[in-house]
Amino acid sequence: MSDLHWLSIADAGRALRAGEVTSAALTQATLDRIDATDGVLHAYAGVMTEQALRDAEQADAELARGVDRGPLHGIPVGVKDLLYTAGFPTEAGSRVLEGFVPDFDAAVVHKLREGGAVIAGKTVTHEFAYGQDVPPTRNAWDHACYPGGSSAGSGVAVAAGSAFGAIGTDTGGSIRAPASVNGVVGLKTTHGRVSRKGVVAMSPTLDTVGPLTRTVEDAALLLGVIAGRDGGDDVWALDEPVPDYAAELTGDATGLRIGVERSYFFYDSVSDAVRAAVEAAIGELEQAGATIVPVEIEHLDLSVAAGFPILVADTSEYHRRLLRERRDLYVRETRVMLELGELLPATSYVRAQRARALVQRSVRRAFEEANLDALAAPTLPITTLPVEELSVDLTGHGETALATFIHHCFLANVTGMPSLSVPVGFDDRSRPIGMQLYGRPFGEASLFRIGDAFQRRTQWHLRHPQD
Amino acid sequence: VDAQTIEQLARYVGLEIPEIDLEVLEPALANQAAMIEILDRLELDDGEPIVTFDPRWR
Predict the structure, then answer these.
(1) For A396-432, what is each residue's pLDDT tens digit?
(2) Which residue of A121, A355, A409, A458 has the fewest CB atoms within a 10 Å radius of its CB?
C-alpha cells in the first residue's frame, strides 16, 4: 500500500486486521512523514522514534496473538505537549518547564496506550496554551500562515499526514481554531467528558481535552478511547457512561434539528467566503435530512466578558508560584496575562461566574424550546492569515483576528457544551474553512452523526495540502 | 488605571512586575475593568454563580 500516512484511522484499522499492513509500517510511514515535513511545519516538539517503533512491534505481536485493544490498536497519534508523558519531556511550549520529565502519563495518554495506540510524539503548543506567543509551527496549507492555536502542532500534524490523529486541548477554541484553519476535524468535548488528569492547566472549569482527526468517524473512534475516567480515583472527569460513538453513525441526519443563530455567529466580521461556505454546508445538512431552525439566543455576546476574567484569574492561580520563581523565563506576552490575572478583584471573578450561569441558562432555554440537537455556526469568522498580519493580543483591545476567534469559540467553554469543527470548504486562496456544531452537554454522538452525514455527502475532508 | 495603581496592586499580591510589562498591563487592566462594567450592568441576582461547593465527604 502506498501513501499509508493518508489513511484514516478507520481504514488503517481495517487494513491492520486484514493483514494488509502492520503497525510497524504505519509507524514508519508516520516517522518518515515527520522527517519530510517537520523541517518546515514544526508540528512536533519532540518525536518518540524508538519508543514508537517498539510500541508498534508490540501492537503487531499482540494482533498476531489475537489480542485486539480496539480501534486505535497500532495507530500512530500525536499528543499535545501539554499532556504529561512518563519519561518523555513535557514542556508546554515554555522555557519555564524546560527539561521537565513527568513520572506518570496523563489519563488520556494512559488510555491511549491501554487502547494500543502508538504515540509518535508531542505536538507543539503556544506557551502554556495561552495563545500569546508565535510558535514556529506553520499552517499545513500555506506555510506563511498562522497554524491556529494553541493546539497548533496537533492540527498541522493531522493535516500534513504526520499523525493519523492527535490530541489537543481547548480552553477558548484551541482545538477548533487549528482544526478550522488546517482543514481537519476537531472536537471540543463537553467539560468533564475527558479526564484532565496530568494536563498542564489553564482553567479547571474551562479546560477540555479532545481529538483532532481527518474524518468525523475517526474523531468518534478516538473519543471512544479517551472519554471517561481513568480509574475510580480520577476526579478529573465526570462519571458519565461512554457510548459507542462510531456505532451511532448512520450516514444521514434525518430527525435531527439544527439551530442557526445568525445575529451573533454571522455578524459583520464574518468574511464572505466563510459565510458562503457555512451556509452551503447548512444547506447540505438539510439535504441530509436535518431540520434547520433559525433561532435567536440572548446573551451570547456576554460569553467573552464572562469567560475572560475566569480564564485569566484561573490561569494566574495555577502559575502563581512559577511566576514568582521563574518570571523571566516566560514569553513577555504570556507573563503580562498572568500578571493581569493576579490583579483582578475577587468580586469580578464571582460576578463573571454569575454572568456565565446566565449565558448557560439562555443557551439551554433555546435548545429546549426549539428542541435542538445542535447549533451550526462558522468555527471562525475568517480563514487563516499570514503570521506577520496577526495581532496577538488577548487583552481585548479592538477586534483583532484572534479576538474574533474567541468571539466564535468561547461560548462552548463558558457553557461547557461540546463543539465539533468540520471542514466545509476553502476560500479563493485555498485556505480551509470550518463549520462548528455546538451540542447539548454530553451530546457528542449527535454532533458526530451530523458531521459524518456531511462528510459522506461531500469531499472537503479528502483534500490534502501540497508539501 | 495607571502604572502607579498597578504597582500598588502588585505589591499587595506580592508580585514584582517588570517595568517593561507596565505599559501593556495598563490598557489590559483597563479593558478588563470595562468588561466587568458590562457584567455590572446586568441583573444577575436570580442565579447562583458557577462556583461549586459540595459539603459531602468523599
Answers:
(1) 455 577 778 899 999 999 999 999 999 999 999 999 9
(2) A458
